[in-house]
Amino acid sequence: MPRAPKLTPNERAAALADLGGWKQAENRDAIARTFRFDGFGAAFGFMTRVALKAEAMDHHPEWRNVYDKVEVVLTTHDAGGLTRLDVEMAAFMDATAAATGHRE
Amino acid sequence: MPRAPKLTPNERAAALADLGGWKQAENRDAIARTFRFDGFGAAFGFMTRVALKAEAMDHHPEWRNVYDKVEVVLTTHDAGGLTRLDVEMAAFMDATAAATGHRE
């Protein structure tokens, strides 16, 4: 049994409206955002803070890093789609990126 | 001017023979390997050690992480292809993964 149920269509719409920078991922029940930082050190600093949070939540992102860019996809694998865990992680990433001085 | 010249075909063949777990990336002058670890903590521990090395070398991987898996592509962007920097980084990753207890 998943730890969190999939969001209803209304809950999903409300969550995406609150999370300004995130969009629906293509062909998946998931959300995606690309962050860009002031170099690799800032990008990996962001990833390190998020990694600690991910372990604490036991909820981990799919992510790709190339130098100053971090591409993130969030979904809840054991629920087969988007849950409140993804919304919580997305909000944490937004706050952490803002605190780390991301550029976009 | 790039910091390191592209490898010659002979140098490339010799390097790939030495780096057992790496293969030619598809449609790019690059090499690729997927590492799998005993959970996210081990995978991100590996990435952290590699990140410090990458900053010291000023030579950074393209990589994607999903839980216990780290997919890596190495190439030298300013040389437009594979150089000794990629071979050095690949060897460092292999040694670090071995020391971090990777599973494959």
Keywords:
alpha+beta, homodimer, 18% strand, 104 residues, 4-stranded antiparallel beta sheet
Task: Tell me about this structure.
The structure is a homodimer of 104-residue chains. Chain A is of the alpha+beta class. Helix content of chain A is 42%, strand content 18%. Chain A has three helices and four strands. Chain A has a four-stranded antiparallel sheet, with helices on one face. The longest helix of chain A has 18 residues, at 40-57. The relative contact order of chain A is 0.26. The model of chain A has no long low-confidence stretch (mean pLDDT 94). The interface between A and B is medium-sized, with 15 and 15 residues.
Number of helices of chain A: 3
Mean pLDDT of chain A: 94
Could you tell me the number of beta strands of chain A? Answer: 4
Radius of gyration of chain A: 13 Å
Strand order of the largest sheet of chain A: 1-2-4-3
Shape of chain A: globular
Strand content of chain A: 15-25%
Largest interface: A-B, 15 and 15 residues
Helix-strand pattern of chain A: HEEHEEH
Terminal Cα span of chain A:
37 Å
Oligomer: homodimer
Give a quick account of the main beta sheet of chain A: strands, pairing sense, barrel closure: 4 strands, antiparallel
Query: Which residue ranges of chain A are poorly predicted, with pLDDT under 50 across at least 5 consecutive positions?
Result: none
Helix content of chain A: 40-55%
Helix and strand content put the structural class of chain A at alpha+beta
